[in-house]
């Protein structure tokens, strides 16, 4: 008699990928804290990205909980210093798990009712610097990322940057889902393989998937922490 096979544990996550230009300006949706941060940003590009990201986050959460975007109240207390620049937590539903990421003209938002999530999006240009390997890669992945080739990725410099960006977004999404962010050195663990549950640096289990990005020169990944086997990505 064969032992009963365990059904995979599936976790649904809603994901929004948008370009900054597609979100459009909606300053009336931002709260006092968000407007204050926005006013302090030096460059126009940074201000556009910040505003669009937080507008998209409010619209996404509004859709998830059925509350007007302007009525949503967030706490952003940093677990390290106590300042208001940490992960957003919805005060009226703190069990809702949120993650937001910006990369140049692109934004990613992830929302889950089930488990902590982390989403990250990055341009390939952002990982094009000499010290990337020593500052971001674990020794187990160094040769694979730097020398490739990896399946489905172009060779040469383009392929290397794509592999770097893929490794980086998987790592940062993982650290966000685990709730530690970049307080954990990214060189301490290899980027998790997509679609497999793994334990990261004794901090907990995660499963990671790559997200298809419809614009060139960008990579994105989504991570969920907990005893899950499959992420059901619900693109919005």
TrEMBL record:
- Give the matching InterPro entries: 4-PPantetheinyl_Trfase_dom, 4-PPantetheinyl_Trfase_dom_sf, P-Pant_transferase_sf
Q: Output the Gene Ontology terms for molecular function.
A: holo-[acyl-carrier-protein] synthase activity; magnesium ion binding
Question: One GO cellular component from the entry?
Answer: cytosol
Q: What is this protein called?
A: 4-phosphopantetheinyl transferase
Q: What are the entry keywords?
A: Transferase
Task: State the similarity comment.
Answer: Belongs to the P-Pant transferase superfamily. Gsp/Sfp/HetI/AcpT family.
Pfam entry (one):
ACPS
Task: Give an example GO biological process.
Answer: lysine biosynthetic process via aminoadipic acid
What is the source species?
Answer: Intrasporangium oryzae NRRL B-24470
């Amino acid at each position: 008699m064969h032992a009963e096979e365990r059904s995979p544990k599936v976790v649904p996550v809603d994901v929004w990928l948008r370009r900054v230009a597609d979100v459009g300006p909606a300053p009336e949706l931002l709260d006092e804290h968000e407007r204050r941060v926005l006013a302090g940003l030096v460059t126009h590009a940074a201000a556009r990205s910040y505003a669009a990201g937080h507008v998209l986050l409010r619209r996404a959460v509004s859709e998830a909980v059925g509350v007007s975007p302007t009525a949503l109240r967030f706490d952003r207390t940093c677990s390290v210093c106590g300042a208001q620049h940490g992960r957003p937590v919805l005060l009226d539903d703190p069990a809702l798990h949120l993650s937001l990421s910006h990369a140049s003209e692109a934004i990613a938002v992830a929302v889950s009712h089930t488990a902590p999530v982390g989403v990250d999006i990055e341009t390939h240009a952002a990982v094009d610097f000499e010290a990337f390997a020593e500052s971001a890669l674990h020794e187990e992945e160094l040769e694979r990322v730097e020398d490739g080739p990896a399946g489905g990725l172009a060779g040469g410099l383009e392929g290397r940057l794509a592999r770097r960006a893929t490794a980086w977004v998987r790592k940062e999404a993982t650290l966000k889902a685990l709730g530690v962010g970049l307080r954990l050195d990214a060189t301490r663990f290899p980027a998790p393989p997509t679609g497999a549950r793994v334990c990261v640096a004794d901090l907990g289990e995660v499963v990671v998937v790559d997200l298809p990005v419809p614009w060139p020169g960008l990579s994105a990944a989504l991570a969920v922490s907990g005893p899950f086997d499959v992420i059901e990505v619900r693109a919005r």
